Amino acid sequence: MKYFFIIFFFFININFSYSAQKDKAYFAGGCFWCVEESFEKLKGVEEVISGYSGGITENPTYKEVTYGNTGHFEVVEIIYDKKVISFEKLLKNFWVNIDPFDAYGQFCDKGYSYRSVAFYQNDEEKKLIEKDIKDLQNKFNKKVVTYIRNFEKFYKAEEYHQDFYKIKLERYLRYKKACGREELLKRIWSQ
Question: Which residues are known to be catalytic?
Answer without folding.
Answer: 31
